[in-house]
């Protein structure tokens, strides 16, 4: 690793907790700190973590102490709390989200910054993603709607991939940040609030991240999570005045969660053909 020069005026916001896998976390940090040049990476350590994770953080901090800003929380209070804390430490107007198990393409930050420079009214920008499995192999393209109008109309589908998003810090703070009342799907609820406030959305045309989907991903999306998502979706489509299709569509995660994992995966595969976001299988 070498010292980064020509840093971008962008903060990257990440959280890591003890359940994150060290090798995936290492890949995630490498994709941001070695292959790109952010002005700052705010890394929130959400509670006590393993020695392996600590060693990975030390490796990158020792090379880039001026970029990597490590924030330690005494105990794990969940992703929403960690992100809200970290957001306050972000020094730049533009903040890029990143998860501890995903991979950013080398062009991601510069590409997203260029969209904001071209469109000063833009508030929140995501991108398509390549889904990868536990071994990093590609399993499909996760498509997304591009324009603000399409995203607004399809807000019920969660048309923004959270770890692909770059946003204006002040706008997210003004919206109230991530809801700490929710254990999952905090981003889904946040986008509805931002849409209601009139924020401008867009997705880049370029694919900018690799998004990890594993067996654990399917297992975590249980009935409790699906029911929470349904309630968020139903409230959101009502607040935005979306139509009958949206009101019916938000129930899909509940139907999916009622199935055993093998059938759930099959249903996801079949439903991708009809996904209004444009998802394609490999």
UniProtKB/TrEMBL annotation:
Tree of life domain: Bacteria
Entry-linked Gene3D superfamilies: Spore Coat Polysaccharide Biosynthesis Protein SpsA, Chain A (3.90.550.10)
SUPFAM superfamilies: Nucleotide-diphospho-sugar transferases
Domain Glycosyltransferase 2-like: 11-135
Swiss-Prot/TrEMBL keywords: Glycosyltransferase, Transferase
GO molecular function annotation: glycosyltransferase activity
Similarity annotation: Belongs to the glycosyltransferase 2 family.
Name by which UniProt lists this protein: Glycosyltransferase 2-like domain-containing protein
Origin organism lineage: Bacteria, Pseudomonadati, Pseudomonadota, Gammaproteobacteria, Alteromonadales
């Amino acid at each position: 690793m070498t010292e980064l020069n020509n840093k971008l005026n962008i903060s990257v916001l990440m959280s890591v907790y003890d359940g994150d896998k060290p090798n995936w976390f290492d890949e995630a940090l490498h994709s941001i700190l070695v292959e790109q040049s952010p002005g700052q990476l705010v890394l929130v350590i959400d509670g006590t973590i393993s020695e392996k994770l600590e060693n990975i953080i030390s490796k990158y901090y020792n090379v880039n102490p001026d970029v990597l800003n490590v924030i330690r929380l005494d105990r794990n209070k969940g992703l929403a709390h960690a992100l809200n804390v970290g957001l306050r430490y972000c020094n730049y107007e533009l903040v890029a989200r990143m998860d501890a198990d995903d991979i950013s393409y080398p062009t991601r930050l510069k590409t997203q910054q260029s969209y904001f420079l071209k469109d000063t009214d833009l508030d929140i920008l995501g991108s398509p993603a390549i889904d990868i499995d536990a071994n990093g192999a590609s399993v499909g393209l996760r498509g997304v709607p591009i324009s603000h109008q399409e995203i607004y109309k399809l807000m019920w589908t969660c048309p923004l991939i959270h770890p692909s998003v770059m946003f204006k810090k002040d706008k997210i703070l003004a919206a109230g940040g991530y809801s700490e009342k929710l254990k999952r799907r905090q981003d889904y609820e946040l986008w509805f609030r931002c849409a209601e406030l009139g924020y401008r959305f867009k997705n880049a045309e370029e694919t900018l991240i690799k998004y990890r989907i594993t067996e654990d991903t399917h297992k975590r999306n249980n009935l409790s999570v699906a029911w929470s998502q349904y309630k968020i979706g139903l409230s959101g489509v009502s607040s935005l005045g979306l139509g009958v299709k949206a009101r019916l569509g938000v129930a899909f995660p509940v139907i999916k969660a009622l199935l055993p994992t093998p059938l759930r995966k099959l249903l996801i595969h079949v439903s991708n053909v009809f996904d209004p976001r444009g998802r394609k299988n490999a």
